[in-house]
């Protein structure tokens, strides 16, 4: 799928290192005011283990989509799966597990394109950080709304909360 000069396609194992580097850059752009630099450094230090984990995931059939710029760089990624929340709203069948686009590509339609590639128009859920107004506005624009579910995060994300947004379906 092409959007402007960008290409959206299924990721291969050859894309994993570049996708992880892009994801970390997107985290820095999005969460720098919510996480210390040591958080990002620790993520960088785990890169080889993450490459191995993602490689095994793709081999097992994980659904990972990437967006590439004309120069071949990965500028966005998205992944999804069947919804696994025990208390998921009736009808929700998909979960958008991640969606990241570098700031340089915000407003290009890549986020929407990656989401369509990953979960289509299915009734879906997505968990986002509570203090991420850009993500909230994006998902609202695409038919999601808060359902009241909240999760306190632990480990390196401790001190932040995730909230669930739900999109009924089908959408046209």
Element-by-element helix/strand order: EEHHHEEEHEHEE
Task: Indicate the CATH topology.
Answer: Aminopeptidase
Which consecutive residue ranges, at least 5 long each, have pLDDT under 50? none
Distance between the termini: 18 Å
Largest sheet: 8 strands, mixed
CATH class category label: Alpha Beta
Summarize the helices and strands and which ones pair or pack.
Elements: E1 2-3, E2 6-10, H1 16-31, H2 37-45, H3 47-59, E3 63-68, E4 74-82, E5 94-101, H4 110-119, E6 124-129, H5 133-141, E7 145-152, E8 161-167
Question: Could you explain how this protein is built, in words?
Answer:
The protein has five helices and eight strands. It is of the alpha+beta class and 172 residues long. The protein has one domain (2-167): 3-Layer(aba) Sandwich (Aminopeptidase), CATH 3.40.630. The protein has an eight-stranded mixed β-sheet with strand order 1-2-3-4-5-6-8-7, sandwiched between helices. The longest helix is centred in the N-terminal third of the chain and has 16 residues, at 16-31. The model has no long low-confidence stretch (mean pLDDT 91).
């Amino acid at each position: 799928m092409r959007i402007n000069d960008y290409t959206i396609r299924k990721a291969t194992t050859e894309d994993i290192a570049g996708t992880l580097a892009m994801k970390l850059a997107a985290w820095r752009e999005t969460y720098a005011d919510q996480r210390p630099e040591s958080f990002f450094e620790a993520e960088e230090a785990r890169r080889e283990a993450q490459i191995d984990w993602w490689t095994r995931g793709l081999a097992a059939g994980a659904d990972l989509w990437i967006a590439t710029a004309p120069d071949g760089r990965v500028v966005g990624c998205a992944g999804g799966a069947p919804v696994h929340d025990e208390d998921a709203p009736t009808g929700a069948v998909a979960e958008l597990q991640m969606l990241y686009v570098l700031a340089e590509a915000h407003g290009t339609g890549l986020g929407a394109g990656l989401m369509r590639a990953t979960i289509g128009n299915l009734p879906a859920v997505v968990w986002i950080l509570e203090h991420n107004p850009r993500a909230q506005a994006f998902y609202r624009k695409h038919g999601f709304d808060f359902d009241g579910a909240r999760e306190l995060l632990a480990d390196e994300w401790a001190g932040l909360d995730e909230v669930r947004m739900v999109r009924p379906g089908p959408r046209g």
